[in-house]
Design a protein that fits this description.
CATH class of the largest domain: Alpha Beta
Strand content: 15-25%
Number of strands: 11
Largest sheet: 6 strands, mixed
Number of helices: 10
CATH architecture of the largest domain: 3-Layer(aba) Sandwich
Shape: elongated
CATH superfamily of the largest domain: DNA mismatch repair MutH/Restriction endonuclease, type II
Oligomer: single chain
CATH topology of the largest domain: ECO RV Endonuclease, Chain A
Distance between the termini: 30 Å
Order of helices and strands: HHHEEEEEHEHHHEHHEHEEE
Structural class: alpha+beta
Strand order of the largest sheet: 1-2-3-4-5-6
Amino acid sequence: MARVFRQTFDQLYDGQHTGRYRLDQLFKTEKTHFGTLIEINLQRELSFADGETLDFSIAGCEVDCKYSHTGQWMLPIESFDQLVLATQANDASATWSVGIVRVTEENRRTSENRDRKTGLNKDGRSRIRWLFKDAPMQPNALLQLPPEDVDAIMASASGQARVNELLRRAQNRRISRTIVATVAQQDDYMKRIRENGGARSALRPEGILVLGGDYINQREIAIKLGTEVPEPGEFVSVRVVPSVPGTGVEISGGWWAIAKPGDVISTAAPIVPR
């Protein structure tokens, strides 16, 4: 289910075409639409049947699906005394939660808004049976960087220069293809990573390796270096220096280790075999 939450954030950001990567950049109507997309995407992922009166039918039980960024789920009258699948996610912390609770009278507030919707009271929130609580999802690398670094990354008019700066400043972090697309804002964004004019060749003189999670060999290099390990569809950049044999990892006939702060880069990073 982690993939559903990650894809829903990315679907709304539409970073490749807009450059957006965080919730406060969305329009109000887009934020409101998040819950609808979570419901649709969860149903597709988990093959839930349609409910007769509520969103889903799960094991013969009617279940209403509700999403809230803050944990303040709004509950309509039709959900009263029914099961609710309470969902929540935080892109900044790269976590998501899914729980289930019955909206009984003792579990819900007595007050209502103009649409006659209410929420869970303190007892109701404590009675949520969490199926997943603060489970990890693929991180949003741009949200993990200081704002001044993101500003520097996005400052250039060139998509290639922006991707190069991303990999300089977001070292030892898992960077998804979606983040690359958001920074590049081009149809051929993956070309910005590759050799022959892409980031790999541009950053090599600076001692920076770009490792791809689609290749077992490059994942093993990341493990031996002791850096973050990219998953399939991800990249990790890391600055390296030559090391003595047996220390670090052997790449293309030489030994390499992660550069320490203050290390002077005088040797280009090696070409990494696939």
